[in-house]
Amino acid sequence: MNDLKLNPLKKMEIIIEGAHQSFATDLLDRAGVKGYTIVGNLSGKGRGGFHEGHLMFNEEEVMVMIITAVPEALVAPILEGFTPFFNQHSGVVFVSDIQVSRLVKFTR
């Protein structure tokens, strides 16, 4: 059996209010991102204090995390697209180096 080859990509973890999820996913789609995972109902503590997830009747008030793996060339355009958004809304983007197998799943 052949060993899996690992390829370098950048992982982006975008944490925003659920009300703005479609803005973020539209931006990623327009940038050419091939896919992403959305994790909802986040809980945690930040500068504004503790944020409780799992609100029963209002999914727009919860925080979501959108996780994607992209080539390095897409990081700057995606961050540029989020800059005006984060000037008016809360949230954060984490970018880290990762290694992935099956590169075809992440590139065009």
Question: What does this molecule look like?
Answer:
The chain is of the alpha+beta class. 24% of the residues lie in helices and 37% in strands. The chain contains two helices and six strands. It has helices spanning 21-31, 72-86; strands spanning 7-17, 37-42, 44-46, 49-51, 63-70, 92-100. The strands form two sheets. A four-stranded antiparallel sheet has the order 2-5-1-6.
Short structural description:
Helix content is 24%, strand content 37%. By secondary structure, it is α+β, with helices and mostly antiparallel strands. A 4-stranded antiparallel β-sheet has the order 2-5-1-6. The chain has a two-stranded antiparallel ribbon with strand order 3-4.
Question: What structural category arises from helix and sheet content?
Answer: alpha+beta
Strand content: 35-45%
Shape: globular
Q: Please summarize the sheet with the most strands.
A: 4 strands, antiparallel
Distinct helical segment count: 2
Mean pLDDT: 88
Pick out the low-confidence regions.
none
Percent of residues in helices comes to 10-25%
Question: What is the N-to-C order of secondary-structure elements (H for helix, E for strand)?
Answer: EHEEEEHE
Strand order of the largest sheet: 2-5-1-6
Straight-line distance between termini: 26 Å
Compute the CA-based radius of gyration. 15 Å
What is the tally of beta strands? 6
